[in-house]
């Protein structure tokens, strides 16, 4: 139980930093570079996912070294792509159908994807 609490704490720190990266890149790409918000969201999600992968494998999860590192990376990418799909659907629905500000929708999308990420990484990376 103590290990799980430590892991959740570390996951929260990594997730917080990844969120700041994601949120900042989204805002910069959309507001300053004039990129359509869904493309900006794709870019920002991808950049934060790369950071998240490196930090998660090195600091958060006790990655099973007996399992292939290639297998771990492939699983991480597969679940990240699913997470991206969830993120994009929420972004589209919140902005286009609910007429909410894209930066506000991003907060909710991130929270949902964060739970998905923790559960899938806990189940498949350890």
UniProtKB/TrEMBL annotation:
**Residue stretches spanning the membrane:** 7-28, 34-61, 73-94, 100-119
Subcellular location(s) per record: Membrane
- Principal location class: membrane
- Tell me which family the UniProt entry assigns to this protein: Belongs to the GtrA family.
InterPro entries in the record, alphabetically?
Answer: GtrA_CellWall_Glycosyl, GtrA_DPMS_TM
Q: Does the keyword Nucleus apply?
A: no
Q: Report the source organism.
A: Absicoccus intestinalis
Q: Which residues form the GtrA/DPMS transmembrane domain?
A: 10-124
Membrane topology term reads:
Multi-pass membrane protein
Full protein name: GtrA family protein
Q: Which terms are listed as keywords in the entry?
A: Membrane, Transmembrane, Transmembrane helix
